[in-house]
Amino acid sequence: MAQTEFTFFNPTKLVFCPDYLESLRCHVGARDYGIVTYSDAFFSDAVDQIQGVLGKAVFVATDITPNPDFSYFNALEGERRRDLAKAEALVALGGGSVIDTAKVFAAGLEDRPDIRDLLNFASQSQALRSKDIIAIPTTAGTGSEVTSWATIWDSESGRKFSLSHPDLYPKVAVLDPSLTYKLPPRITLASGLDALSHALESVWNINANPISSNYAVRASRIIIETLPSLMNNPENARLRQMMLQAAVFSGLAFSNTKTALAHNISYPVSLNHNLEHGIACSFTLPLVMRRAIGSDTVCDETLREIFGNDLHNGADQLEEFLCNLEISTDPDDYGIPATTFKKYLNDALTGERGRNFIAA
Question: Are residue 28 and residue 169 in the same domain, yes or no?
Fold first, then answer.
């Protein structure tokens, strides 16, 4: 699918630096601001440090958990909503769940008691009265710091929703590799595989273009080379820096294409089988790659830049890469019976992200 006409857009300012606090001083300035982050000791200390540099925040949310849910947003009390309304900018320090939650806050949650109202409004509005987001990722994987959407779950109905609007790109992404140095092994692995999935999903994608593919190739090659070494040397600063760069490259790639089939399969897997997102969207990559091979000459050419000329051998290499990281590619190993997985696959092919798959 050779393209003679395409666009690539990403307005997020990227700041690679060794001191995120100093960067915040520049990018928040004297504005009233809020902080969105996790609750454990590392992040509690960070909240104190941020307020020591910027002054007291008008809004602080330190109760963010993985996979932001409708119930969390709808339970936000009136006083906290009023505090949120005062914030002109939001500092989001954490992984994808934190940055996604900040996007929901930034979109005007304080004005809409039910998250469904906000989703409907954002889908119909040409412009949001959104707050500036300064995203500081502490994992190398989700890419949320350079995308305009947030994943929100309705666990009660077993569904996943996306809050999406061009005004929700973070204004600035502050990329401080030192924040990832102490990541636990499982989070390091899951976030790294999430980044690889974003990169590859942007390649076998009907929305791929030469610029997104260039980022995807670079990201994929770095991750395949770096992640196994990092798992064996988790405190290696250079490897951590390489993974953070790769995660940003993959984020830039899929910020313009969105994801595809592997991600659509991952949603019921995460919801019904308690599997981390990064694992759920990566264990099917060899399967999806084998389906993509031969469906489009440009896609094949891009995959060859990652895996070499023999793409079927490349799919085998990808499977071996995952197995060496102790990630099984057999759904049964995650408690997913063959009949259930077949249903997930068939449903995914007709889902929003599945329809992006070039061989759908």
Answer: yes
